[in-house]
Specification:
Distance between the termini: 30 Å
Helix content: 55-70%
Number of domains: 2
Number of strands: 3
Structural class: mainly alpha
Mean pLDDT: 84
Order of helices and strands: HEHHEEHHHH
Oligomer: single chain
Strand order of the largest sheet: 1-3-2
Strand content: 5-15%
CATH architecture of the largest domain: Orthogonal Bundle
Shape: elongated
CATH superfamily of the largest domain: Winged helix-like DNA-binding domain superfamily/Winged helix DNA-binding domain
């Protein structure tokens, strides 16, 4: 999970410098329902680690709006990505291993798909589909072999899980079809290289 949080932070800071509380808010917005998988208790330690290795920089800037009258002037730390951090972000985006197929890993990578090359997007989508198909088959086996030993509520929960898997497989298949034909989920043709012009070789 630390790598996924690292990816999310670097991706957000590549969009613009942010205060820590802004990062928390943007993580919640960007990651949606999977944000619960990221502990905000690890956010600031991760920011400190990224700063130590040189992937982000930090500067304290005064903020007039949050300084009450007759109190000492204190600033808030603004974090920004460094050139080395941009390289690390690109490296993380290019990963398409098993960790990108799990729920949290897939969610974080998917949130930055617009900045990921098409081949990597396709590998991640196909890996995720295999993972969910395996989960679906496991649930089918439970329902076929043990349904008579499950109480009504446990049985309903298994059916709900199976239904969710089947819906996700259909969604992934649609995304994969779009990727192979060069279309985005909205049906538009995405740019071949999502990186800004200045970052391209």
């Amino acid at each position: 999970m630390s790598t996924m949080l690292e990816l999310a932070i670097l991706g957000l800071l590549q969009e613009s410098p942010m205060h820590g509380y802004e990062l928390r808010k943007e993580l919640a917005t960007k990651l949606g329902t999977i944000r619960a998988a990221i502990s905000y208790g690890t956010l600031y330690p991760t920011l400190k680690r990224l700063q130590t290795v040189g992937w982000i920089g930090a500067a304290e800037t005064p903020d007039e709006e949050i300084i009450p009258p007759m109190t000492s002037r204190r600033g808030r730390v603004v974090y920004k990505i460094t050139a080395e951090g941009k390289e690390r972000f690109a490296e993380l985006l290019a990963q398409a291993g098993p960790e990108t197929y799990d729920d949290a890993g897939f969610g974080v990578h998917f949130a930055f798909f617009s900045r990921t090359d098409r081949a990597t997007r396709l590998r991640i989508l196909e890996g995720r589909r295999r993972r969910i198909e395996e989960r679906r088959e496991g649930l089918r086996e439970v329902l076929s072999r043990a349904s008579d030993r499950l109480d009504a509520y446990t049985l309903e929960l298994q059916r709900h899980g199976l239904d969710a898997c089947e819906r996700e497989v259909r969604w992934l298949e649609e995304l994969i079809t779009n990727e192979r034909s060069g279309r985005s989920p909205a049906g538009e043709t995405p740019p071949e290289d999502p990186r800004p012009h200045q970052d391209r070789p």
